[in-house]
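Reviewer 2 asked us to include a model.

Predict the structure of this chain.
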Amino acid sequence: MFYALSGVRVLEVGEHISAPFCTKFLAGLGAEVIKVERPGQGDSARREGPFPNDEPHPEKSGLFLYLNTGKKSITLNLEAREGKKIFLDLLRKADIIVENLGAGVFDGLGLSYPHLERINPQLVMTSISPWGQTGPYRDYQAEDITIQAMSGAMYQQGNPEREPVKSGGSISHYRVGASAFAATLMALHHAENTGEGQFVEVSSMEVSVHDDFFSVELYMARKVITTRQKAVLMLPCKDGWVYFRVFPHEWPRFEKLLGFDIEQDERFVTMEQRRLHAQELEALVLPHVRERSKEETYHWAQAAKVTAGYVANVQDVVESQQYRSRRYFVSIDHPIAGNLAYPGTPVEMGDIPWRHSRAPLLGEHNAQIFGGLLRYTREDLVRLRQTRVI
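Predicted model (structure tokens):
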């Protein structure tokens, strides 16, 4: 089958989330993604849960299985002289490298982009790091909570009367991976049209600051620092929480839904007044939702064309009729982890297919890549394993 990126070869030297998430998209669009992992250890994500039946196993990590669908795995020691030579041989046959080992790490291995570009002039190299490749913070480490804190995002999250809170999961790493994917495609397009490779630098902090353009522009224009605000109209219902985001043009519909004229009350004439008198406003709306389920409330408001939503847990999401009707979740079988459901295609592009296939076992494709692509013999592979190069 022909895919959008059929014929494109990618080397991923990635750990954890950001780089593997970037290359997950490339693999989904049909690129051959060769994941370069450390011999005997592999990607650190292999040791993170969740694990099926809560049984830790490097081939059963839910995080790894999700992030690495459709890829091939080889093991290679980039610190060994022969491992570096093998990597350069692969580089000559690749279109893209994606890595997130940290600023300067590839340079320290003797694999800086200027050196690699001389070997493969059309090479696109995408490097993801917390702070970028330059600047006084270049060598500082950062995790998701650090990125959310130091990018300013966390300052705006949570109850204004309490400490700031981070968003759930590792959202900043996924945003960075998605940004890296878009930038890599643009650089690949440029390389294919001009014959010139590109070095794509992605800073996790800068991506996060870029996402929050409103507070940045507000400060630039008016020197106003955006602070945390209590969510107005986040209300408890029979089995959870619902949120009404009533836009100005929706207020007449909202009033009709509730059966009284809110805007005639001077406490609720403007959005600012509604925010100042949030408790009184919520007290008026609460009786209309308190005895309804969250899903019933959602449909009730949406039927009146009032913007609302309920706070869904993961069971709500997985069992949602909307996702089921679109066949969003897909089942993928794995020889060790078994048959599991995965989030499906993130975008629909007409007749362009998305490839759904399992994540690789550690070093599963050593023989295929080293033997088939680079022409190493079986004896060579035995020697390389014995010397811990692969």
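Residues 9-212+329-386 form a domain with the Rossmann fold fold (CATH 3.40.50.10540). DSSP finds 17 helices and eleven strands in the chain. We have added this to the supplementary material.
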